[in-house]
């Protein structure tokens, strides 16, 4: 019986040990067993059975509590693992949501810009009306301007041809006059280019407008003096030729 109780104590674990000071119940059980061996009595046997039942109940309770503690520990570990997974998932979702928030802000900014552009586009005239305005402008203004430009180019080419022809004629007149023995006056020599000078003066009217009135007056006086001197010189030369003897070809050319 003592060996049986010792095996029960060893199977019970640290709750029931021979060396433990808290196992008063086990010590009482051993005393009852010794008493029963010395003087077997039914009351002592009932006490032993009660003590054994109490010990078994305590061991069962300890086993149940140990299993409960292990189960609760495993449950807490699973719960902690689940909380960690949920935390990682939430952190990942937070990162994803922040990225989506940045994209949403950029998209909202682009939408506002697009709305402004749409308002500006809606303010513009329709395409058909714009094309009609372009065609009308091309017909009413561009085409007449191109026609005038073509006419001016033709007139300019004709004018240049006339100037070249007149300059050639004047060169021929000068050569014939030199062969005949007299010179052409400066007024006649410059007559072919007088119109070109006047046209160039007209083209440069914008630059001449910047001159002062005093400069214009000086220029007019200078031109008048040069023309007067050239005319008087030519007149004196003509009088000298008329009074001087000349050959037949020169007289016929002068007449």
From TrEMBL:
Region (Disordered): 183-255
Coiled-coil regions listed in the entry: 66-124
Subcellular location: Nucleus
InterPro entries: THOC7/Mft1
Presence of keyword Coiled coil: yes
A Pfam match: THOC7
Descriptive protein name: Uncharacterized protein
Organism: Steinernema hermaphroditum
